[in-house]
Amino acid sequence: MLVLMAGLFLWSRQFVDLHPAWGYANAFAEAAMVGGLADWFAVTALFRHPLGIPIPHTAIIPQNKDRIARTMAQFLRENFLTPSVVARRMQGMNIARAIGDFLVSPPQASPLDGGDPSRITGGAAELLAEVLESLDPDRLGDQVRAGLARQLGKLDISPLLGRMLDGAIADQRHMPLMDGFIRWAGLTLEDNEEMVRQIIESRANAVLRWTGLDERISGSVLDGLYRLLAEVLVDPKHPLRSKIEEGLQNLANDLQHDDKTRERVEAMKRDLLENPAVAEWWLGVWERIRLSLIRRARDPESALGEEMRLAMAEMGHALQADQGLQDQVNRFARRTAVGISTRYGGQIVQLVSETVKRWDAVTITARIESAVGRDLQFIRVNGTLVGGLVGVSLHALDGVL
User: Fold this and answer.
1) Are 172 and 325 in contact (CB under 8 A)?
2) Which residues contact 392 (CB under 8 A, 6 or more apart)?
3) CB–CB of 253/170 below 8 Å?
4) Shortest CA distance to 8 belongs to which of 22, 35, 18, 19?
5) What was the pLDDT predicted at 7?
6) What are the angstrom distances between the C-alpha of 240 and each of 165, 246, 375?
7) Do 158 and 256 form a contact (C-beta atoms < 8 A)?
């Protein structure tokens, strides 16, 4: 435009005396060149020295980048990171409802992406797999085991076991267990019948073995045991059941109130926790769990993704429908945001300020110019046009006066 205005100025000067209109064109071109050059100088002076000449009060942004950094940081601090401002801005925000809407109806992938229309569960599953793979299995297993051991070490399990046993007896929940034990005893006896016969016969004296009574005695003993187990199994009021229940009640009482019993249980617990075999067993269990989760997370045919989707959808419905839950989540979010601004607001502001200060003059100039974009060109264009209009106006006033 400067070249165009210069050409118009030189061309129109030749015809100024021929017609008054050429005077207006010449005045427009002359003032437009002045306006364009003035705005070019002004815009250029913001970022660098015009034509490389160190004219005072030019290259304003590079020379004042530290002050700009402090101003930006102060603006961020006063308008965004003040606890009262954060709390006021979040007061009208229903974050819980927004999360619920997102979980119930996650954003759909574009068909052009070539992916699953709902990629949130796939992304979450892949993230879970990557986290599990990045963890040191031995170290994490040891940490989890040590944590469980510490918690179990603090827990007095003897009274807990006693109360559990008391409750089971009171609710008759021990009956299926007792029936199962009786059936197990019968099956064990049947599987080892020949060995039991040999034990009984080996303890019989020579006279009994000589007369053959040892086989009849062993058979009678086994028949009596089978009959006893059958009677106990079918008769809920069998005296042996009462004896077993009485023993269980005594055990429950001792677990809660007898110091010696409690000490024996605690000693057994300590020995179990300190046993290296238990540690090895736990590491094996943990490794199988970890590898299984990784396989399920990576397997598109597994139910893990569907389970995660359903779980997130249920959470989303709860956040949408439960006003009390929404209030709790929103309150927690506000407190968290206010707490972050209170504890770390100064550090965030300092980070912004120090980052801008570390930028060199070329970097900060390029970034601000890139952010403003083509508007800088339009400033020069507008300056050229406005200058031309001012020149025409002044030429008209000069003709009137």
Assistant:
1) no
2) 24, 27, 28, 31
3) no
4) 22
5) 92
6) 19, 10, 97
7) yes
pLDDT given at position 121: 58
Tokens of 79: 């308008």
Angle at which helices 193-203 and 213-234 pack, to 10 degrees?
130
Instruction: Output the DSSP codes for 249-293.
Output: HHHHHHHHH-HHHHHHHHHHHHHHHH-HHHHHHHHHHHHHHHHHH
Reduced DSSP (H G I as helix, E B as strand, rest coil) percent helix, strand, coil of the chain, to 5: 85, 0, 15
Q: What is the DSSP letter of 373?
A: T
Cα torsion for 205, 210, 215, 221, to the nearest 10°? -30
How many other C-beta atoms are found inside a 10 Å radius of the C-beta of residue 151? 9
Longest dimension (CA), the chain: 159
Distance CA 76, CA 352 (A): 9
Angle at the Cα of 211 (from 210 to 214), degrees rounded to 5?
85
The two tokens of residue 382 are 């507008």
CB atoms within 10 A of CB 271: 10
What pLDDT is stored for residue 34 in this prediction? 92
CA distance 47 to 37: 16
290-315 residues labelled b (16+ CB within 10 A) or e (exposed): beebbebbeeeeeebbeebbeebbee
Task: State the Cα–Cα distance between residues 81 and 72, nearest whole angstrom.
Answer: 12
- Buried b / exposed e along 58-90 (16+ C-beta atoms within 10 A): bbebbeebeebbbeebeebbeeebbeeebeeeb
Query: What parts of the chain have a pLDDT lower than 70?
Result: 106-129, 131-145, 147-148, 152, 155, 174, 196-197, 200-219, 282, 297-298, 300-309, 401
What confidence score (pLDDT) does residue 128 get?
Answer: 66
Distance between terminal CA atoms of the chain? 31
Contacts 24+ apart (CB under 8 A), 284-289: 286/137, 286/140, 286/141, 286/144, 286/145, 287/137, 287/141
